[in-house]
Write a sequence for this structure.
């Protein structure tokens, strides 16, 4: 599992080169606690004040929810969901946690921008496209990435033996994803151009079907799709994101509104993700 290095960062539009993911400028999170005081008249009883506070807590517990992307990979987020750690930590703050699934990073950030997701976890490419579209993205954390977790698959018995052999072939990838970025880097490294291949933009579930039916010649995709196709003998890895092909981090992000209104919750979330990462490293099985 990957080693997390957390930092809070503000988002801003930046011109990016294709070979560099976004550089999130770290700054220390300053948490401010707003104290609410209740001015009671002399005839108000302590029992009435206690009842009022209880009603507010109950109302908040029913109304507040944090929506975090469900991780299909073996990450700290998966640990948090499966062990119920974050759920218990956030109960006293009046929050419940929901874990929806998304096909890929671009869909996550669309939902984030629309307010249908509060915390996303993506590779470096989707945030670039999201910010280019003007989304109010805020980077919460960055973690080192294992490039080998993203691979270019070809059918097991395919005659394709190198990236150069992809010329004129149908290559699938999720648009605006890490697969999109890495296929560009891979073919450039092989002396080709993107126009030398037939790009097929497909979300992972659709690409998985197309790959199994032999409708595409190659597919740049991440785990667990890679291992599943290798284990069922339908595919083999041509190249992966290792050996310098992938050169940046993964990111955990949110939108500006959620960030500004939920500082305490975000602090708890990052604290528990870090603990989950440590636990996972110590308990790999």
């Amino acid at each position: 599992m990957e080693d997390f290095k957390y930092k809070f960062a503000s988002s801003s539009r930046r011109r990016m080169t294709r070979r560099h993911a976004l550089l999130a400028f770290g700054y220390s999170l300053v948490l401010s606690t707003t104290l609410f005081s209740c001015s009671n008249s002399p005839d108000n009883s302590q029992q009435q004040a206690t009842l009022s506070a209880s009603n507010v807590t109950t109302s908040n517990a029913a109304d507040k929810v944090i929506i975090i992307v469900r991780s299909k990979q073996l990450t700290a987020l998966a640990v948090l969901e499966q062990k119920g750690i974050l759920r218990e930590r956030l109960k006293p703050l009046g929050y419940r946690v929901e874990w929806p699934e998304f096909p890929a990073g671009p869909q996550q950030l669309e939902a984030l921008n629309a307010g249908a997701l509060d915390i996303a976890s993506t590779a470096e490419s989707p945030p670039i496209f999201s910010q280019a579209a003007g989304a109010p993205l805020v980077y919460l954390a960055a973690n080192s990435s294992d490039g080998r977790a993203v691979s270019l698959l070809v059918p097991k018995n395919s005659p394709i033996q190198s990236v150069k052999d992809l010329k004129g072939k149908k290559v699938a990838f999720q648009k605006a994803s890490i697969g999109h970025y890495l296929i560009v880097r891979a073919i450039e490294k092989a002396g080709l151009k993107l126009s030398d291949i037939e790009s097929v933009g497909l979300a992972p579930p659709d690409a998985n079907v197309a790959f199994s039916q032999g409708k595409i010649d190659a597919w740049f995709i991440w785990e667990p799709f890679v291992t599943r196709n290798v284990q069922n003998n339908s595919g083999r890895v041509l190249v992966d994101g290792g050996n310098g092909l992938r050169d940046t981090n993964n990111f955990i992000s949110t939108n500006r509104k959620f960030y500004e209104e939920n500082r305490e919750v975000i602090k708890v979330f990052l604290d528990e993700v870090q603990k989950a990462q440590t636990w996972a490293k110590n308990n790999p099985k």
